[in-house]
Amino acid sequence: MPREEFNTPVKITWCLGCGNFGIWVALKNAFVEMGLRPDQIFSVYGIGCHGHMINYLKTYGFEGVHGRALPLATGAKIANKSLKTMAIVGDGDQLGEGGNHLIHAARRNPDITCVLHNNQLYSLTVGQPSPTSDKGVKTRLTPEGVFDQPFNPLALAIASGASFVARGFAGDVPQLTKILVEAINHQGFALVDVLQPCVALNHLNTYSWFRERIYKLENHDAKNKVLAFEKSLEWGDRIPVGIFYREERLTLEEQLLPDKDAILAEQPLGLSIEKLLAEFR
Amino acid sequence: MNDFIFKIAGEAGYGIASAGLIFARTAQRSGYFIFTSSEYPSLIRGGHNVFVARIAEEAIHSPKSEVDFLIALNQNAVDFHKKELSPGAVVILNSDKAVDSGFPSGVNILSIPLIKLAQENGGQDVMMNNVALGATVFLLEADFKILESAIRDVFSSAKPEIIDLNIKAARAGFDFAKHFAGSQTSGSLKAKKAAKKILISGNDAICLGAVAAGCKFFAAYPMTPINSMISYLSARAKKLGMVYFQPEDEIAGINSAIGASSAGLRSMVATSGGGFSLMTEAFGLAGMAEVPLVIIEGQRPGPSTGLPTWSGQGDLRFVLHASQDDFPRIILAPGDQEECFWLTIEAFNLADIYQTPVIILVDKFLCESQKSVVAFDESKVKINQGSLLSKEDQKKDYLRYQITESGISPRPVIGRPGQTFIFNSDEHDQAGFSEESSDNRKAMMEKRMRKLETCAREIPAPRIYSEKKAEGPEHSVRGIEISLVGWGSTKGVILEAQKTLADQGIETRFLHLNYLNPFPAEAVGSFLQNSKQILMIEQNITGQAAGLIREKTGIKIENLLLSYDGRPIYPEEIVQKVKEII
User: Fold this and answer.
1) CB contact under 8 A, A256 and B245
2) What CATH number is associated with residue A127?
3) Residue-range definition of the domain harbouring residue A62
4) Most CB atoms closer than 10 Å: which of B52, B99, B393, B430?
5) What domain range is B529 assigned to?
6) Same domain, yes or no, for B474 and B431?
7) Predicted complex: ipTM over 0.90
8) Beta bridge partner(s), residue A63
9) Which residues in chain A have Cβ-Cβ distances shorter than 8 Å to B264?
10) Cα separation, A149 vs A164, whole angstroms
């Protein structure tokens, strides 16, 4: 299937050069490489610049409310386990408003791929610091610099029990595509943190700032949780990208569904309550 | 006694609820109608717990305030409840834990060392309940075998030897009463032939309604008073071919249910006012994205934590207005256990037909009270999925948010092979794409709100219950003197008050509201216009439904009976208020 099959007729309004483009293209590449059709994929979005993608990426889609993409995606995955379910989220969206849901999705292990657009700012609302803004960063709103420690999504995901944890870079579409294919193929909860330069508002974490620091994880044992955790803490002069951690574990659906081989949404309605009534006599 | 109140009271943690259930089952299986309610503080042990059952030969709808048979397990039970006793009431006094601190004269007291008897028969202290029940069964001339079967069923998950010890304890109580009170029996619970009934709580009736309606996804974060729904459905989910999902909070609960619904499952959440506060944003999402969803809101008195284990009707205005801006919402308020069952099925149908959230507004009193009802006739269950597309039709062209005269658009399902579509919380065009133009905005707001107008034409008029005075020359012919209005769970109490008033020569009409949005303004308006005196009865401090009626009909109801102490309203309070008015 050509990549254009995943396009919509809607005109894209992201800023020229926005990291969202790289993620959008990498997602389409991954779907094409995996031989998926638009009707086999469900993309759930949060609110933020990333959420506009619902208008540009042709799959089944749902733009929910800020921070809540993961529970919504989890419900849909339970209803139809055959859906390739994507939670396409932002850093303020998922780590600020929706932080709790990330922890619990990681624990539960639904077969969902969470693609975190991490531009280290609230960009749609013109540049407030986000949970991943580096400490000390000066923005128009923080003339004294950001006071708080940055949130480390990879370390949190590993600690919370995520079964696949990776980081990509929106400026390296081929590598991001590879990571996304691995993440979508992974049976269980996969977090892909994507470093995404915001060309309009983030004048520190630019494409060139990342390119100077990024290196690819090689000869890394992704089954070693302690090592994965150690790598996830690396940030600053050198920033690793690649697959940090992966493990095989039963998914939420495999454990929760009444028939793990059947699609719940296709089961007929209407059930006799005769036997249930007898318990109340 | 052919209509009497049984009460068992003592310290929390002493199995009062299971003893109450055993008694209620015994009475029902003996052929009687039962209505039970419980009172407990928000503690697992140490607080004062009460279980109340009303037993009658004819159908009953509410508790009454006077107690005719009391099992007092400790001193608090004596001190708190001695003033509630009717003349001639019977008391079983646990002489191991309590003394007679001055019962009213005329009360018959049987002191029994309940704990000592339980221990002597090899049981634990907690089995004192069954000693007391054994004595009760003797005093009321019930069949011990029926008590035995009730004990076996209520403790069915316990080890056989534990069940036997419980029965042995009950037998000891029975024998003790026979020995010391052999001549003081009344045949109030003598076994008789009667139609088979079920004893069911509002929560359980909602669960059965959900199962019958084909609910396949239930998400609920624990919260009184809906916890027994979680217990019921989670324990049976796999067998029933459904999923119970325990979310990390109510926000995750409602969002997961919206996700499940978008992919085609009939989905339900349950919570109380505090949890619904967290759900309000996603409540609006379901309205905007047009996703069917059933929400159970079990009210308890607030604000904030309020009285967590008591009852009230203070959330009507909240559910009517929760979430930003206008979107169609349907609000149902079942009046009793039967309506809990049937309106839950109706809620799933309405949610599908109008593709919008439906709230079932209940309260702690209705959620947890049990009532004897004729078993629901499942042949009358009708499932209507509205404009849900078939798999074949979803392969053709359609517009997810097509503008129609009824406001209802075709409903495809996420994940089927065919044409993809999107659900959008942003204002969107007919295809679902984000669209902010003025013309589109107006058209879409009007389309969504038209669904409520369509629904308003379809809903049934509220039921009016009339109670004629007893025949007899002593009553003058004055006709209906007062119209009563109530909504939701006060139905039973008002029906009981009507009966009492009729016995005293006062004829009444009672309009019960169980569809609160869309509001049946025309029917309510004409009922009120044709009333001499009107009394509104509800359980909140501001008269929320009275205000709603004024807003929708322009009629101001002058007489309000408002109760907001968390306790049930009793028929006697209504009778007294009516007499003050006329």
Assistant:
1) yes
2) 3.40.50.970
3) 3-278
4) B52
5) 463-581
6) no
7) yes
8) A45, B424
9) 79-80, 265-266
10) 24
